[in-house]
């Protein structure tokens, strides 16, 4: 459908209809100078009648307040990323900000610098970085000093405020649960991390070490369920594997499919626990036990930290919430306990 050629109403049109000057309309919109109630009512009535929408860029020039928040992320479609972005956008919109998303293609320095340069080529008020992985961590280090910046991630550090999810405690809870069912140890299928210290791997290893049991080698799957599927087929041939914790729910689903096609039952032969609380997990067969995390809340808390920086120049260093273990059908005692 062709767009209408009708000219959008301007601030001049509002002034003419209201019978006031253009500066008066501007003062009503920005609140920079008091305007009489009678004139304010006339201006607002004209705005409603014309359907006038103030230009954000022009308003920023008048008020000195930028209205755009930049978000840097390596992905926008995976569950945790997409839901965190949703939380940021909802909170920013309620506060009168527009969110602009820039994707960091890889952690290669040129790609990271290009993404940062693109985001900062716009007049942004501040930046939220999704520091879920190496590209996010690299982007955080490329941002200039003096720019309001907040990181959303599973870990702390880097000298900027962080909104975090306590991955370490969540992984410990999941591992303790599986050990409590009678499993001799728990294997771990890992997602990529944003640094040397991965919260989920740390919690898994800490729980095993505390229990005095074997710590198996980490099985790296990247982000792709297809890789977890292949790992599942490989683990199916091992008698020593009875419990697996996966770095996210997508990997858990891929792993379970691989186990199924190789003739192993979940949880009859091998228990599987995921991470994140993907909505599809409860519809999987068997329904997936998972460590549930509130990513939308993570996004809202990230913006709240940034809002503090924008409002007063000060904010909390960390905003953290705990994960919740949700027990479903994919986990149970090992075969030897039945």
UniProtKB/TrEMBL annotation:
Residues 9-63 form the HTH lacI-type domain. CDD domains: HTH_LacI, PBP1_LacI. GO terms for molecular function: DNA-binding transcription factor activity; transcription cis-regulatory region binding. Keywords: DNA-binding, Transcription, Transcription regulation. SMART domains: HTH_LACI. This is LacI family DNA-binding transcriptional regulator. It comes from Jiangella ureilytica. The lineage of its organism: Bacteria, Bacillati, Actinomycetota, Actinomycetes, Jiangellales.
